[in-house]
Design a protein that fits this description.
Layout: E1 2-7, H1 16-29, E2 33-38, H2 45-50, H3 52-62, E3 68-71, H4 74-79, E4 90-95, H5 98-101, H6 105-115, E5 120-123, H7 126-134, E6 142-144, H8 161-169, E7 178-183, H9 192-198, E8 207-212, H10 221-228, H11 231-241, H12 246-253, H13 257-260, E9 263-267, H14 271-280, E10 283-286, H15 300-307, E11 311-315, H16 320-323, E12 331-333, H17 338-350, H18 355-369, H19 372-389
Helix pairs in contact: 1-19, 9-12, 10-11
Length: 390
């Protein structure tokens, strides 16, 4: 079996899709002949897009043994739709969530038809698969293969001074606090501002809410631009480019002194430091809320937190339910249910007996059920059976 993989999300850029793309290509390269065409940060991504068709044609011409071309997200899938007109190869595309539910009319009414043309469509979660089926994708062409997680995360030592030093640099006394932590870009669906406004005031006064992820203290040019555009257009642009639109709401909430005393935005941290902060926290929360036209395709950060042995509480919505299995590697909480979130957090803050052994079992479950090797093996088996059948 000989394959070509195309992706604009790849290291050295950091992110969940970059990780998935890297490990998929690396894993399959051990099982069959793999060619890759990826954007690795050299030059602009726009030049990568503009030269994509020419480069793909060149690779196919030089390697006539290629049987299948895989596009690793909907954006690349749309740009390489012309491949579906070739009879000499088969095509596959992986969809991650937003590239299915993106709310722009031209996408939902026209462009998504081009993604339905692919011979094989892979969804990263059952929720993403269902969104495909809701949009008239052929059922026997759509498959669900969940993402994996880096097992090495569990082995990286915890630096016990990291959190104390970070808090002291922000003028916060590290002692006498219990920590609830979230991680990610401050986009609306992550629910950070909802949690600060709705749940945090219900928690004991010694609870400090930590947010890890890029955060700007002032409005950027992009923020100002979005504010003057029509709301519908601004929302589409923000979703397309991943603009952290929840930042402005969080900044407004932090103007209140009582709220500010209970929230610490740590910003973007080195990888080892953020892992230490998660390990030193009492509870990791993923309080996602429903946002029309957006969705959480999988929930990789919850798995990463679980791998650190920290209790994970996550919203019971969308692709998160494919990452966190209630009672197996964390706990699912009804999205936007304030009382349930309050009860679940307080319960897990106060439990002291057997938490360590319970969370070790959660880590073990995650190790057994989520790995990049398992993911790449699933892709390999799917492609092999697909090509043999065809």
């Amino acid at each position: 079996m000989e394959l070509l993989f195309i992706s604009h999300k790849y290291p050295p850029s950091i992110g969940g899709m970059e990780n998935q793309s890297f490990h998929l290509i690396q894993g399959l390269a051990k099982k069959c002949k793999v060619h890759k065409l990826v954007y690795d940060g050299r030059g602009s991504v726009w030049s990568f897009y503009l030269g994509l068709k020419k480069k793909v044609k060149k690779i196919l011409k030089q390697n006539p043994g290629i049987q299948l071309v895989h596009c690793n997200d909907g954006t690349i899938g749309l740009m390489c739709d012309w491949l579906n007109d070739l009879s000499s190869i088969k095509t596959a595309v992986t969809l991650h969530g937003l590239d299915v539910v993106y709310p722009m009319d031209i996408f939902q009414n026209s462009l998504i038809k081009r993604l339905r043309r692919y011979d094989c469509v892979i969804a990263v979660s059952e929720a993403t698969k269902q969104e495909c089926l809701n949009r008239a994708f052929t059922p026997d062409k759509v498959f669900c293969i969940p993402n994996g997680v880096d097992h090495d995360i569990a082995e990286i030592p915890t630096n016990k001074m990291v959190l104390e030093n970070l808090l002291e640099s922000k003028g916060i006394e590290a002692k006498n606090h219990r920590y609830v932590v979230s991680m990610g870009r401050a986009v609306k669906r992550k629910g950070f501002s909802w949690f600060i406004e709705s749940v945090l005031p219900k928690l004991p006064n010694d609870v400090l809410y930590l947010i890890i992820g890029p955060f700007k203290k002032k409005n950027s040019f992009t923020d100002h631009l979005l504010n003057i555009l029509p709301k519908r257009m601004a929302k589409s642009i923000a979703l397309l480019f991943g603009v952290p639109t929840d930042q402005a709401t969080i900044r407004e909430l932090l103007k209140d002194k009582n709220t500010a005393s209970r929230v610490c935005v740590l910003g973007k941290l080195p990888f080892k430091d953020l892992l230490s902060v998660i390990s030193l926290s009492n509870v990791f929360v993923m309080p996602n809320i429903r946002v029309e036209g957006d969705m959480e395709g999988f929930g990789l950060v919850a798995l990463e937190a679980c791998m650190r042995g920290t209790t994970v509480l996550a919203s019971k919505i969308e692709g998160i339910q494919d990452a966190i299995i209630d009672g197996k590697n964390g706990f699912l909480v009804e999205s936007e249910n304030i009382d349930q979130w309050k009860t679940a957090i307080i319960k897990n803050l106060e439990i002291t007996d057997d938490v360590s052994s319970r969370n070790k079992a959660f880590v073990e479950y995650t190790l057994q059920n989520y790995s990049w090797n398992k993911m790449s093996e699933s892709y390999f088996q799917l492609f092999q059976s697909f090509l043999e059948k065809k």
